[in-house]
Protein backbone atom coordinates (compact mmCIF):
# COMPACT_ATOMS: atom_id res chain seq x y z
CA UNK A 1 0.00 0.00 0.00
CA UNK A 2 1.23 3.47 -0.78
CA UNK A 3 0.95 5.47 2.41
CA UNK A 4 0.11 9.10 1.77
CA UNK A 5 2.57 11.62 3.19
CA UNK A 6 1.84 13.76 6.21
CA UNK A 7 -0.22 16.82 5.31
CA UNK A 8 1.70 20.02 4.76
CA UNK A 9 4.97 18.22 4.34
CA UNK A 10 5.20 18.19 0.58
CA UNK A 11 7.58 19.86 -1.82
CA UNK A 12 7.80 19.83 -5.57
CA UNK A 13 10.61 19.07 -7.92
CA UNK A 14 10.45 21.70 -10.61
CA UNK A 15 13.58 20.39 -12.35
CA UNK A 16 11.76 18.82 -15.24
CA UNK A 17 8.89 21.28 -15.16
CA UNK A 18 6.62 18.48 -13.87
CA UNK A 19 5.11 18.65 -10.41
CA UNK A 20 6.21 15.60 -8.46
CA UNK A 21 5.04 15.34 -4.88
CA UNK A 22 7.83 14.91 -2.37
CA UNK A 23 7.82 14.34 1.37
CA UNK A 24 10.28 16.07 3.69
CA UNK A 25 12.20 13.59 5.89
CA UNK A 26 14.93 13.71 8.50
CA UNK A 27 18.52 13.38 7.19
CA UNK A 28 19.32 11.35 10.32
CA UNK A 29 17.66 8.28 8.85
CA UNK A 30 20.72 7.66 6.66
CA UNK A 31 22.47 4.72 8.34
CA UNK A 32 25.77 3.53 6.82
CA UNK A 33 25.68 -0.07 5.53
CA UNK A 34 21.89 -0.02 5.08
CA UNK A 35 20.16 0.00 1.73
CA UNK A 36 17.20 2.30 1.10
CA UNK A 37 14.49 0.97 -1.20
CA UNK A 38 13.72 4.57 -2.16
CA UNK A 39 15.53 7.47 -3.83
CA UNK A 40 16.58 10.41 -1.67
CA UNK A 41 16.76 14.00 -2.83
CA UNK A 42 18.18 17.17 -1.33
CA UNK A 43 17.44 20.79 -2.01
CA UNK A 44 19.96 22.96 -3.82
CA UNK A 45 18.61 26.47 -4.26
CA UNK A 46 15.12 26.00 -5.69
CA UNK A 47 15.80 22.57 -7.11
CA UNK A 48 15.71 19.08 -5.73
CA UNK A 49 18.65 16.94 -6.82
CA UNK A 50 19.16 13.21 -6.48
CA UNK A 51 21.24 12.39 -3.40
CA UNK A 52 21.03 8.57 -3.25
CA UNK A 53 19.53 6.26 -5.84
CA UNK A 54 16.89 3.68 -4.94
CA UNK A 55 18.67 0.49 -3.85
CA UNK A 56 21.97 2.28 -3.18
CA UNK A 57 24.04 1.24 -0.15
CA UNK A 58 24.33 4.11 2.33
CA UNK A 59 27.94 4.78 3.36
CA UNK A 60 29.75 6.75 6.05
CA UNK A 61 30.53 9.28 3.33
CA UNK A 62 26.82 9.77 2.63
CA UNK A 63 26.28 10.62 6.27
CA UNK A 64 29.32 12.90 6.59
CA UNK A 65 28.41 14.81 3.43
CA UNK A 66 24.99 15.62 4.90
CA UNK A 67 26.70 17.07 7.98
CA UNK A 68 29.15 19.10 5.90
CA UNK A 69 26.33 20.49 3.77
CA UNK A 70 24.25 21.36 6.86
CA UNK A 71 21.18 19.62 5.43
CA UNK A 72 18.01 19.92 7.56
CA UNK A 73 15.77 17.84 5.34
CA UNK A 74 15.96 15.23 2.67
CA UNK A 75 13.07 14.44 0.34
CA UNK A 76 11.41 11.19 -0.67
CA UNK A 77 8.93 10.78 -3.51
CA UNK A 78 5.36 10.27 -2.35
CA UNK A 79 5.17 6.95 -4.17
CA UNK A 80 8.25 5.75 -2.23
CA UNK A 81 6.97 6.90 1.17
CA UNK A 82 5.65 3.47 2.21
CA UNK A 83 9.08 1.92 1.45
CA UNK A 84 10.76 4.75 3.32
CA UNK A 85 8.66 4.24 6.48
CA UNK A 86 9.22 0.47 6.28
CA UNK A 87 12.97 1.21 6.28
CA UNK A 88 12.50 3.41 9.36
CA UNK A 89 10.53 0.68 11.16
CA UNK A 90 13.22 -1.91 10.36
CA UNK A 91 16.01 0.35 11.64
CA UNK A 92 14.24 2.30 14.37
CA UNK A 93 16.17 0.81 17.29
CA UNK A 94 19.52 1.88 15.85
CA UNK A 95 18.24 5.41 15.20
CA UNK A 96 16.58 5.83 18.63
CA UNK A 97 19.67 4.54 20.46
CA UNK A 98 22.07 6.83 18.60
CA UNK A 99 23.01 9.51 21.13
CA UNK A 100 24.75 11.55 18.41
CA UNK A 101 21.31 12.29 16.91
CA UNK A 102 19.40 15.16 18.61
CA UNK A 103 16.36 13.89 20.56
CA UNK A 104 14.04 16.08 18.47
CA UNK A 105 15.24 14.40 15.27
CA UNK A 106 14.80 10.94 16.81
CA UNK A 107 11.26 11.95 17.78
CA UNK A 108 10.62 13.04 14.19
CA UNK A 109 11.85 9.70 12.82
CA UNK A 110 9.84 7.79 15.46
CA UNK A 111 6.72 9.72 14.57
CA UNK A 112 7.11 9.03 10.82
CA UNK A 113 7.67 5.30 11.46
CA UNK A 114 4.84 4.89 13.97
CA UNK A 115 2.21 7.09 12.37
CA UNK A 116 2.55 5.32 9.03
CA UNK A 117 2.13 1.90 10.64
CA UNK A 118 -0.86 3.08 12.70
CA UNK A 119 -2.43 4.61 9.59
CA UNK A 120 -2.26 1.22 7.87
CA UNK A 121 -3.71 -0.59 10.91
CA UNK A 122 -6.75 1.74 10.83
CA UNK A 123 -7.18 1.77 7.05
CA UNK A 124 -10.82 0.91 6.32
CA UNK A 125 -10.02 0.24 2.67
CA UNK A 126 -7.79 -2.73 3.53
CA UNK A 127 -9.48 -6.14 3.82
CA UNK A 128 -7.66 -6.95 7.07
CA UNK A 129 -5.93 -3.84 8.40
CA UNK A 130 -4.56 -5.55 11.51
CA UNK A 131 -3.31 -8.82 10.08
CA UNK A 132 -0.66 -11.02 11.65
CA UNK A 133 2.20 -9.44 9.73
CA UNK A 134 1.15 -5.90 10.66
CA UNK A 135 0.60 -6.92 14.27
CA UNK A 136 4.17 -8.29 14.39
CA UNK A 137 5.49 -5.00 13.02
CA UNK A 138 3.55 -3.08 15.69
CA UNK A 139 4.93 -5.40 18.38
CA UNK A 140 8.50 -4.91 17.15
CA UNK A 141 8.12 -1.16 16.81
CA UNK A 142 6.80 -0.69 20.36
CA UNK A 143 9.45 -3.07 21.76
CA UNK A 144 12.18 -1.12 19.94
CA UNK A 145 10.70 2.20 21.14
CA UNK A 146 10.42 1.45 24.83
CA UNK A 147 13.81 2.76 25.94
CA UNK A 148 13.27 5.97 23.97
CA UNK A 149 9.71 6.48 25.27
CA UNK A 150 10.88 6.08 28.86
CA UNK A 151 13.28 9.04 28.53
CA UNK A 152 12.10 12.15 30.33
CA UNK A 153 13.02 14.38 27.39
CA UNK A 154 11.33 12.28 24.68
CA UNK A 155 7.69 13.22 25.35
CA UNK A 156 8.29 16.95 24.94
CA UNK A 157 9.83 16.38 21.51
CA UNK A 158 7.24 13.78 20.49
CA UNK A 159 4.38 16.13 21.41
CA UNK A 160 5.36 18.38 18.46
CA UNK A 161 4.50 15.56 16.08
CA UNK A 162 1.65 13.62 17.66
CA UNK A 163 -0.72 16.20 19.16
CA UNK A 164 -2.52 17.15 15.97
CA UNK A 165 -5.14 15.30 13.93
CA UNK A 166 -8.58 13.85 14.51
CA UNK A 167 -8.13 10.50 12.78
CA UNK A 168 -8.46 7.31 14.79
CA UNK A 169 -4.87 6.30 14.11
CA UNK A 170 -3.60 9.68 15.33
CA UNK A 171 -5.62 9.34 18.54
CA UNK A 172 -4.26 5.77 18.89
CA UNK A 173 -0.65 6.97 18.64
CA UNK A 174 -1.30 9.84 21.09
CA UNK A 175 -2.92 7.55 23.67
CA UNK A 176 -0.17 4.96 23.24
CA UNK A 177 2.59 7.49 23.90
CA UNK A 178 0.84 8.91 26.99
CA UNK A 179 0.00 5.48 28.42
CA UNK A 180 3.47 4.04 27.82
CA UNK A 181 5.30 7.06 29.22
CA UNK A 182 3.02 7.11 32.29
CA UNK A 183 3.56 3.39 32.95
CA UNK A 184 7.32 3.69 32.35
CA UNK A 185 7.45 6.33 35.11
CA UNK A 186 6.70 3.72 37.78
CA UNK A 187 6.96 0.22 36.30
CA UNK A 188 9.87 0.52 33.87
CA UNK A 189 11.20 -2.97 34.65
CA UNK A 190 8.14 -4.82 33.34
CA UNK A 191 8.84 -4.20 29.66
CA UNK A 192 6.79 -7.12 28.27
CA UNK A 193 3.71 -5.82 30.05
CA UNK A 194 4.28 -2.25 28.87
CA UNK A 195 4.69 -3.43 25.26
CA UNK A 196 1.42 -5.41 25.54
CA UNK A 197 -0.37 -2.36 26.98
CA UNK A 198 1.21 -0.13 24.32
CA UNK A 199 -0.32 -2.33 21.61
CA UNK A 200 -3.69 -2.22 23.38
CA UNK A 201 -3.46 1.57 23.66
CA UNK A 202 -2.58 1.95 19.97
CA UNK A 203 -5.43 -0.35 18.87
CA UNK A 204 -7.98 0.46 21.60
CA UNK A 205 -10.53 2.04 19.24
CA UNK A 206 -10.02 -0.41 16.35
CA UNK A 207 -13.62 -1.66 16.85
CA UNK A 208 -14.89 1.73 15.63
CA UNK A 209 -13.86 0.66 12.13
CA UNK A 210 -16.75 -1.83 12.25
CA UNK A 211 -19.35 0.90 12.82
CA UNK A 212 -20.63 3.79 10.66
CA UNK A 213 -18.25 6.74 11.16
CA UNK A 214 -21.20 9.21 11.36
CA UNK A 215 -22.25 8.07 14.83
CA UNK A 216 -18.85 9.06 16.24
CA UNK A 217 -19.13 12.55 14.74
CA UNK A 218 -22.10 13.35 17.00
CA UNK A 219 -22.08 14.02 20.75
CA UNK A 220 -22.79 10.80 22.63
CA UNK A 221 -25.62 12.41 24.68
CA UNK A 222 -27.50 13.38 21.51
CA UNK A 223 -27.57 9.86 20.06
CA UNK A 224 -30.62 7.59 20.04
CA UNK A 225 -30.58 4.67 22.45
CA UNK A 226 -29.85 2.26 19.58
CA UNK A 227 -26.88 4.36 18.41
CA UNK A 228 -25.58 4.67 21.98
CA UNK A 229 -25.63 0.87 22.19
CA UNK A 230 -23.73 0.70 18.91
CA UNK A 231 -21.08 3.09 20.23
CA UNK A 232 -20.81 1.06 23.40
CA UNK A 233 -20.18 -2.07 21.34
CA UNK A 234 -16.88 -0.80 19.88
CA UNK A 235 -14.60 -2.27 22.62
CA UNK A 236 -16.04 -5.77 22.13
CA UNK A 237 -15.96 -5.33 18.34
CA UNK A 238 -12.28 -4.37 18.68
CA UNK A 239 -11.52 -7.61 20.48
CA UNK A 240 -13.38 -9.44 17.69
CA UNK A 241 -11.28 -7.70 15.00
CA UNK A 242 -8.11 -8.87 16.77
CA UNK A 243 -9.35 -12.35 17.70
CA UNK A 244 -7.26 -14.13 15.06
CA UNK A 245 -4.04 -12.51 16.30
CA UNK A 246 -1.75 -13.92 18.97
CA UNK A 247 -2.36 -10.91 21.21
CA UNK A 248 -1.33 -11.00 24.86
CA UNK A 249 -4.16 -11.04 27.40
CA UNK A 250 -3.22 -7.55 28.60
CA UNK A 251 -3.63 -6.13 25.08
CA UNK A 252 -7.12 -7.60 24.79
CA UNK A 253 -8.06 -6.29 28.24
CA UNK A 254 -6.95 -2.82 27.20
CA UNK A 255 -9.12 -2.93 24.08
CA UNK A 256 -12.13 -4.36 25.94
CA UNK A 257 -12.05 -2.24 29.10
CA UNK A 258 -10.76 1.17 28.00
CA UNK A 259 -14.18 2.79 28.70
CA UNK A 260 -14.60 1.38 32.19
CA UNK A 261 -14.63 3.86 35.08
CA UNK A 262 -13.49 3.84 38.68
CA UNK A 263 -17.09 4.13 39.90
CA UNK A 264 -18.36 1.27 37.74
CA UNK A 265 -20.41 3.56 35.46
CA UNK A 266 -18.37 2.76 32.36
CA UNK A 267 -18.89 0.09 29.73
CA UNK A 268 -19.05 -2.70 28.57
CA UNK A 269 -18.83 -4.55 31.90
CA UNK A 270 -19.41 -1.80 34.50
CA UNK A 271 -16.36 -3.04 36.43
CA UNK A 272 -15.10 -0.71 39.17
CA UNK A 273 -11.52 0.52 39.38
CA UNK A 274 -10.69 -2.02 42.08
CA UNK A 275 -11.58 -4.80 39.62
CA UNK A 276 -9.38 -3.42 36.85
CA UNK A 277 -5.60 -3.76 36.47
CA UNK A 278 -3.63 -0.52 36.93
CA UNK A 279 -2.57 -0.50 33.27
CA UNK A 280 -6.22 -0.44 32.14
CA UNK A 281 -6.87 2.46 34.52
CA UNK A 282 -3.86 4.27 33.03
CA UNK A 283 -5.21 3.71 29.51
CA UNK A 284 -8.75 4.86 30.44
CA UNK A 285 -7.28 8.08 31.85
CA UNK A 286 -4.93 8.75 28.92
CA UNK A 287 -7.76 8.05 26.48
CA UNK A 288 -9.90 10.71 28.16
CA UNK A 289 -7.02 13.19 28.29
CA UNK A 290 -6.21 12.69 24.60
CA UNK A 291 -9.90 13.02 23.64
CA UNK A 292 -10.17 16.31 25.52
CA UNK A 293 -6.97 17.82 24.11
CA UNK A 294 -7.31 16.61 20.51
CA UNK A 295 -9.64 17.72 17.77
CA UNK A 296 -10.76 20.95 16.24
CA UNK A 297 -9.19 24.03 17.85
CA UNK A 298 -12.51 25.62 18.87
CA UNK A 299 -13.58 22.66 20.98
CA UNK A 300 -10.36 21.14 22.28
CA UNK A 301 -9.12 21.94 25.77
CA UNK A 302 -5.64 23.04 26.73
CA UNK A 303 -3.68 20.43 28.74
CA UNK A 304 -4.31 22.44 31.92
CA UNK A 305 -8.07 22.68 31.27
CA UNK A 306 -8.22 18.96 30.47
CA UNK A 307 -6.42 18.02 33.69
CA UNK A 308 -8.76 20.26 35.71
CA UNK A 309 -11.78 18.67 33.99
CA UNK A 310 -10.54 15.14 34.71
CA UNK A 311 -9.79 16.06 38.32
CA UNK A 312 -13.36 17.28 38.68
CA UNK A 313 -14.53 13.82 37.55
CA UNK A 314 -12.74 12.19 40.45
CA UNK A 315 -15.18 9.31 40.73
CA UNK A 316 -14.49 8.33 37.11
CA UNK A 317 -10.69 8.08 37.00
CA UNK A 318 -7.85 6.80 39.15
CA UNK A 319 -6.53 9.91 40.93
CA UNK A 320 -3.15 8.28 41.73
CA UNK A 321 -2.73 7.59 38.05
CA UNK A 322 -3.74 11.18 37.29
CA UNK A 323 -0.96 12.41 39.59
CA UNK A 324 1.51 10.23 37.66
CA UNK A 325 0.27 11.54 34.32
CA UNK A 326 0.57 15.14 35.57
CA UNK A 327 4.16 14.45 36.71
CA UNK A 328 5.05 13.01 33.30
CA UNK A 329 3.46 15.97 31.48
CA UNK A 330 5.09 18.50 33.84
CA UNK A 331 8.56 17.02 33.26
CA UNK A 332 7.94 17.43 29.53
CA UNK A 333 6.71 21.00 30.09
CA UNK A 334 3.31 20.09 28.66
CA UNK A 335 0.85 21.12 31.35
CA UNK A 336 -0.02 24.65 30.22
FE1 LIG B 1 -13.10 3.98 22.70
FE1 LIG C 1 -10.23 6.35 22.35
Protein described:
This protein is an alpha+beta fold. The protein has two domains: 1-80, no CATH class; 102-331, Hypothetical protein af1432, CATH 1.10.3210.10. Helices cover 51% and strands 7% of the residues. The chain is built from 14 helices and five strands. It has helices at 60-69, 81-96, 103-121, 132-149, 154-162, 168-187, 191-203, 214-217, 225-232, 234-241, 249-257, 278-293, 303-312, 319-331; strands at residues 10-12, 21-25, 40-44, 47-52, 74-77. Strands 1-2-5-3-4 form a five-stranded antiparallel sheet, with helices on one face. A hairpin with a 2-residue loop joins β3 and β4. The longest helix is centred in the middle third of the chain and has 20 residues, at 168-187. Residues 1-19 have low confidence and may be disordered. The structure holds fe (ii) ion (FE2) (2 copies). One fe (ii) ion binds next to loops. One fe (ii) ion (FE2) binds at residues 204-205, 234, 258-259.
